[in-house]
Amino acid sequence: MKRPLVIINCLTYNHAPYIRQCLEGFVMQQTNFPFYAVVHDDASTDDTQSVIREYAEKYPDIIHPILEKENLRSKHDTTMNNLMTQYLSPAKYIALCEGDDYWTDPYKLQKQVDFLETHPDYSLCCHRYKIYNQNQDTWSEDYVASLFAEQAQGFTFTAVDNYNTWITKTMTLMYRRECLDLKQMNKYKYARDVHWNYYLLHKGRGYCMPFVGAVYRRHAGGVFSALTAQAKEMTSYKIYEELCQQHPDDEDLKMYLTTLQQVFGDNLRHRIYNLEHSKELCDRIRYFRHSLCNMYGNVAVRKFDMQMCKSLIKGLKHKITE
Fold first, then answer.
1. What is the CATH number that goes with domain 6-218?
2. Own/partner pairs for 43-46, CB < 8 Å, 24+ apart?
């Protein structure tokens, strides 16, 4: 087999209802270069591995399975990143797609490779997509729709742009393998695609292409999409807080975390104003106070406590006058 120019990195876990559609998106790709997909199933408990075996037998040159017997992600160690570093090393470019999402354009890989081959100062490129809300059987616009209103032919973006609007949805991404060392992720407790994009966009620029080439599926079993709004907020905060701790001199990152802190604090004060009380809220307040103390010291904590007390008093007054 020829050395692949592109390797598709596909992670799956309990994606039996969706994985067939995902794999079809891989095998339909038409390119003038060799590629294959490393389909890594993390010990699914449903029929995901059976479907992967079926496609690996039918398309042995394209589907390269890694079928775990023991869940690696739950170990929270370096095994997953070290393993993927090894399996992705032959390629110049890496494309991403998780097992519950799928591609719709048979020339997706070709278009992205053509761009990166002619734009060596770019570390990644992505494209537009559609959002399918599985439980409601409805469709939504992608997160970048408003950006294309004024830049219909595509646009260049930086890490700061990606903070303000999440441009690089995972199943749209292709990047230069040399620009990302997956072993860097080993130092993070909350490692996500946020971290991948952070490092890639500090190695070069990103470009968002105008074609619609994939579908992002929201469903009850999704790792992030299934979370409540409050849980998503907490997860996002922890991700950027940890990233900022590793890069304390990145002023743009610190500014974005400050914005998240403002939103996070405002939401906590609103819940206190409404006299909400729960263990989850108490844990969240405790975590936020600790975070503020680590970043800004006790003065910031005292200021936050005063704001919380004012919100509580206002809420009690409002309740009494009802």
1. 3.90.550.10
2. 43/13, 43/68, 43/69, 43/70, 43/71, 43/72, 44/12, 44/13, 44/14, 44/15, 44/16, 45/14, 46/14, 46/15, 46/16
Residue labelled with tokens 């029929």: 47
pLDDT of 253-296, one tens digit each? 999 999 989 888 888 888 888 878 788 888 888 888 888 888 88
Residue type, 117: E
Spatial CA neighbour of 147 closest among 130, 165, 134? 165
19: phi then psi, degrees, rounded to nearest 5: -65, -30
pLDDT of residue 35: 98
> In sequence order, what are the residues at sequence separation of 6 or more whose Cβ sits closer than 8 angstroms to the Cβ of residue 104?
25, 130, 212, 213, 214, 215
DSSP string spanning 154-220? -EEE-HHHHHHS----GGG-EEEGGG--GGGGGG-TT--HHHHHHHHTTTSEEEEEEEEEEEEEE-T
Query: Where does residue 15 rank: exposed (0-12), middle (13-18), buried (19+ CB within 10 A)?
Result: buried
Decide if 30 contacts 116 (C-beta within 8 A): no
What 3-state class would DSSP assign to 24?
helix
Contact between residue 99 and residue 13 where contact means Cβ atoms under 8 Å apart: yes
Q: How far is CA 296 from the centre of its chain?
A: 28
Contact 223/217 with Cβ under 8 angstroms?
no
Q: Given this model, what pLDDT does residue 121 score? A: 97
Residue 150, both tokens = 């004024």
Parse the chain into domains and list their residue ranges: 6-218, 229-320
Cβ distance 72 to 80 under 8 Å? Answer: yes
Model-level pTM? 0.90
